[in-house]
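FAQ: What does the model actually see?

It sees only this:
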Amino acid sequence: MKVSGYSGVLAAVLAVLCGCTVQPAGGGDAKGHSPVHIDLPHSPAPAGTTSAPASTAPDPDPASTAPAPAPSAVETDPPHIVFTRGDTGTGVRGLQARLRQVAWLFDGPTGTYDDLTAQAVRGFQGKRGLPQTGETDAVTWRRLVRMTHRPGKWELYLMGGQPAAAPDPRCLTGRVLCISKTSRTLRWMIDGRTVSKMSVRFGAQYTPTREGVFHVYWKSRHHVSTLYHSSMPYAMFFSGGQAVHYSYDFAARGYAGGSHGCVNVRDEAAVADLFAQVRSGDKVVVSW
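And it is asked to produce this:
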């Protein structure tokens, strides 16, 4: 009994001398000390007095110790939509040009987010395990950008639709077919007023379209080239065998091809209307 009593007293003394408190996680000082802090009294309590109770740490904030939710339980905002059906503009042209680069789109660019564009985006998304929404969200856009290069001007306007350059000063009087090689466009102008505009294509490297001031000297609605045996509907001849006319190849391939020197138009309705208005003797200006 004496031994057990002595052991109990010894245990009590040790508890006072070596009493410790555990700080809440992250509750240590700013120097990164251990969260376990041992308080050693400088001297034992005087005889006949009651020793102060060992200090205890405050209860931790329940919110700070709550387990983090599983990743699947974390709510996330839906991906930001970059482009969707009905959108128009150069941004959509850029998207379409990039889809052409990876062989998911074969028409355009048109600058309008249509059904063909949505279908191409769905295919691209499905191939890469992304949700097949047909809308270009931020994730889809970043993936496409990593796989492609920035489209050049004539990739963006491969099938036409580019803005026309300002008219050459020689186009500001009279009835003029004002043709710009810089913007690849034709303006039909009467007394300085633009009646219509359309995209055009020129001769290839070894058969360039001549530049200068000319006049329409012959019109041929169903013309066929005697030299190349190719169809040249709505032909308006202005310099030797060179003419403004509709081109099936331009309509199909855009600027991927070229002519034998003629000024090609890909919009058949537009060139048909132009053919009906232009007269023999009207001026033709071809310039850079």
